[in-house]
Structures are given as structure tokens and as C-alpha cells.
Specification:
Elements lengths: L6 H11 L1 H16 L21 H31 L2 H19 L2 H7 L10 H19 L2
Helix pairs in contact: 2-3, 3-4, 3-6
């Protein structure tokens, strides 16, 4: 923190840094609850949602996808506020990109894909790596955006 910042600004900066763990915890908890309701893959349960689905990789994918959505919503809120305050074209461009990424994340969510039919789990244990890197990148982006 800069020595020229006022105590009110320092307090505001500390509070804004809490948003990163809050968003991560919120995304994890909502994703944990949603992962209990993964669409069943048996043909006779095609449109049913059953708790305790025995697909741990898919459950982990649901949790990570929900964290991604939570981080993208938080980033969109941050940059919409910046755009409203500054009217900068760059901030508007970031808002457009963040909304496109948010729509992509929502459409690729395993819960939504499961409504169309059985969800392919993918290449085994390598499935969550892309989600892990994406969550890390969005978390770092949110942290840097709040400075």
C-alpha cells in the first residue's frame, strides 16, 4: 500500500481483497451442492436427476465449472463498475469478453449438457486439468483487478 493512501482507502482495499476467497468459497459450496444432482446416465433415468451419482470426476468438473461461473460473474461486476466510473472503451471491451466467457462456461456446464443426454466424462483423469488452470487464471485476474 502506498504511504499517500488514506486509512479509508486502505480499509476499502483490504475489504476488496476479501472478495477473492468469498467468491471461491461461494462457487465451491454451490458447486458442491449442484454436483449431488448430476443427471443420471442410465437410459431409463435420462431426464432424472439423482443424488449420490457415482461419477467423482464429473462431480469435480461440476464444482470447477461452478467456480468458473462465480469468478466470471465477479469479474464482470468489477469491470462493469469500472466502465460506469471511467467510460473507458477498454473496460467495455473486457465486459464483452467476460460475458462471452460466462455464456461459454454456462453452456459447457455438465448439468446443462446432461439435459440433452448422457454426459461424456472425457479422457479420464486429465479432464479437470483445463478447469483447474481456468479457475487459477480467473482467480488471478480477479485478484489483480481488485488492486
Amino acid at each position: 500500500m502506498n504511504s499517500q493512501t488514506t486509512p479509508t482507502e486502505q480499509k476499502r482495499m483490504r475489504i476488496s481483497k476479501l472478495w477473492v476467497p468469498i467468491v471461491l468459497l461461494l462457487g465451491t459450496s454451490v458447486g458442491g451442492v449442484l454436483s449431488l444432482f448430476i443427471p443420471a446416465v442410465e437410459p431409463f433415468k435420462r431426464f432424472g436427476f439423482g443424488p449420490f451419482n457415482e461419477q467423482p470426476i464429473l462431480q469435480f468438473h461440476v464444482i470447477l465449472s461452478t467456480i468458473e461461473v462465480a469468478l466470471l460473474i465477479a469479474l464482470a461486476v468489477v469491470y462493469v463498475r469500472i466502465f460506469i466510473q471511467t467510460k473507458a472503451n477498454f473496460a467495455f471491451g473486457l465486459v464483452i469478453v467476460l460475458y462471452a466467457l460466462l455464456i461459454h462456461s454456462l453452456l459447457q456446464n455438465p448439468l446443462l449438457l446432461g439435459l440433452a443426454g448422457p454426459v461424456a466424462v472425457g479422457p479420464g483423469p486429465f479432464l479437470p486439468f483445463a478447469d483447474i488452470f481456468t479457475v487459477f487464471a480467473y482467480t488471478l485476474f480477479l485478484y489483480l483487478s481488485l488492486e
